[in-house]
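Possible regression after last week's pipeline update?

I re-ran a chain I had predicted before the update to compare outputs. Posting the input and the new output here so someone can diff against the archived version. Not blocking, just want to make sure nothing changed silently.
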Amino acid sequence: VEIGGFQSLYTWRNPPPSLLEAEIAPQADFVLSFAGLAPRIAERRVEVTALGDDTWRIVAVVENRGFLASSGSHRAREAGLARPVRLELDLPDGVTLVGGTARVDVGHLEGRSNKMAGGWFSSSATDNRGKAEWLVRGAAGATLTLHVDGQRGGRFERVIELA
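New output (post-update):
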């Protein structure tokens, strides 16, 4: 508590330039280490299997390689402030979806934070992964685009060729 009001000299001003770097450095280290805990959604594998008659099975598996869950926190998940990880298949002309839905929510993916206890106390060894499957019909050589949106864990695209 500041009795007598704010001392603007010490509240709103930077330290002298000669002391500024020493004052800021520990704060920057903290911010960078905290940012390193963020969720990071990445591709685990994408498989394309020919089933005959220009029909293809596509399996995509993504994973959270970060420390925190893809929601950022359990409270954000409970309050509905974080969207689940979403995989969406973008089909070109001439390719149709036979099985599955173009957009699949694979839920929130855990990070490494829940695996620290180890042993039988930890959750599933694969609760940091999500999987989606589709059946498509199209000519060999057609290219589709997989869009992955982890909201707080990042976004990426992957071009898939039917081959």
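Follow-up from reviewer: compared with the archived run. The first strand starts at residue 41 and ends at 52. Marking as no regression found.
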